[in-house]
Design a protein that fits this description.
Number of strands: 17
Number of domains: 3
Structural class: alpha/beta
CATH class of the largest domain: Alpha Beta
Helix content: 25-40%
Number of helices: 14
Shape: elongated
Largest sheet: 11 strands, mixed
CATH superfamily of the largest domain: NAD(P)-binding Rossmann-like Domain
Radius of gyration: 24 Å
Distance between the termini: 50 Å
């Protein structure tokens, strides 16, 4: 059979890695796909820039439309990132009857519903394994390997930058700002790190995972999102004293009333495997009704780890080129006419335990006032630590772990506690998940 021709849009870290993997493993890839796969065209903004890949034999252009409108190209690999331009290019490629592979999580999270509808109408595939957790095949696991299960919950460390920062804060007692600067110097974080440290990147990925797990539309705008910028090294230390490790998690959970979708710092018992995923690594814990807990761990970013997922998608598309489009694996795991608009719970309806840290004046009866307020809101205390005055500070830190309660009740309790004259500043709150 004649080779399948691929056009790559973007020759950066992932684009270069994709070409390297396709060339280095060409024989094995051909054996798996059943046909040779050739990158014949690629686009880049600067054709003179030094590349991490050998582009010999590849026709280069600065205009992606040259590739998308080329009738000889079978598969378009979109690796330019961003939203608007990528969306336009992908929709044109689909309109031209071309299959698409992308690593663009924002594109899928924000515009996937429209893109998949167009792809179904044209009978083409849109593959996006590399959009979540780099080289970890979590989308394939959810969409195919666990398809016999009703997925009940998933929790993931799905942003390597945030995980690196929290790991350094725990292991070396460093401050957030100090570690963030190092993460930027190492290339783990962008010059503007907002997407990483405020949880937006993780929310994009959780949007995709939740849709595949539960068969719901992509709904990024409904995810409760909280970053790690308010986590102090004291919080990290106190959490360890209580037997917990702080991780930035994306959590999706099916309840009787709807689906929880949330991204936030979370205390996890130190004995859990996912609590010990360190550095820039990613991990996703999935609970299915039949299989129980399964954990997927590996590199969440990087040139060739992400290229591993991109190339696997290309192979899947090549395998499917000769099959009836109606028999392709559905983009979001469930048949398009079976996607259910299950309600997404408001953040107030979340039920979880909490870590609370507050500073109080060194006066008699302060603790009694705080516990009274918690009791009035039906919040029970699980564990408690009181520290002496900190250096150059007359206030006392109090740390509490609560039992499971409604977010709405906790919000009201915190508001009342912060109104006390004896409480200094704000109450720092981190959610707790046992993941057992």
């Amino acid at each position: 059979m004649k080779p399948v021709k691929v056009g790559v849009l973007g020759l950066g870290t992932v684009g270069g890695g994709t070409i390297n993997v396709l060339r280095r493993n060409a024989t094995e890839i051909s054996r798996r796909a059943g046909r040779d796969i050739l990158v014949t065209h690629a686009s880049a903004r600067d054709l003179d820039k030094k590349r991490i890949c050998n582009t010999e034999g590849i026709i280069l252009t600065t205009d992606p439309l040259d590739i998308i409108n080329n009738p000889e190209i079978d598969i378009i690999v979109e690796l330019i990132g961003g939203e608007s331009l990528a969306k336009d290019l992908v929709l044109i490629a689909i309109a031209n009857g071309k299959h698409v592979v992308t690593a663009n999580k924002a594109l899928i999270a924000l515009h996937g519903n429209e893109i998949f509808a167009q792809a179904k109408q044209k009978g083409v595939m849109v593959a996006f394994e590399a959009a979540v957790a780099g080289g970890i095949p979590i989308i394939k696991a959810l969409r195919e390997g666990l398809s016999a299960n009703c997925i009940e919950s998933l929790a993931g460390i799905i942003n390597g930058t945030g995980n690196f920062i929290l790991t350094e804060m725990r292991d070396k007692g460093r401050d957030f700002a100090d570690v963030l600067s190092e993460a930027q110097a190492l290339g783990y974080a962008e010059a503007d790190p907002t997407f990483d440290v405020e949880g937006i990147d993780a929310a994009h990925k959780l949007t995709i995972l939740a849709s595949i797990a539960f068969g719901i539309p992509l709904q990024f705008e409904k995810i409760f999102t909280e970053g790690i910028t308010n986590i102090s090294r004291e919080d990290v230390s106190y959490a360890e004293e209580l037997g917990y490790i702080i991780k930035h998690l994306g959590i999706a959970r099916k309840t009787a009333n709807g689906i929880e979708l949330r991204v936030h710092p979370t205390l996890i018992p130190h004995r859990r495997l996912i609590a010990n995923v360190d550095g820039v690594k990613n991990a996703v814990l999935v609970h299915g009704d039949a299989v129980g807990d399964t954990l997927y761990y590996g590199a969440g970013a990087g040139s060739e780890p992400t290229a591993s997922a991109v190339v696997a998608d290309i192979i899947d598309v090549v395998r499917a080129l000769t099959t009836d489009p109606e028999n392709h694996v559905p983009h979001l795991a469930f048949q398009a006419n079976a996607i259910a608009d299950i309600p997404i719970l408001n953040a107030d309806a979340i039920e979880t335990a909490y870590y609370l840290r507050l500073n109080v004046q060194d006066k008699t009866g302060v603790l009694a006032e705080v516990t009274r307020i918690l009791a009035e809101h039906s919040i029970s205390i699980e564990a408690f630590i009181q520290k002496g005055p900190q250096q150059n500070d007359s206030s006392l830190p109090i740390i509490m772990l609560t039992q499971i309660t409604l977010e709405k009740q906790m919000n009201a309790a915190i508001k009342s506690i912060e109104a006390l004259d004896t409480v200094v500043g704000t109450v720092n709150r981190i959610r707790v998940e046992n993941l057992g």
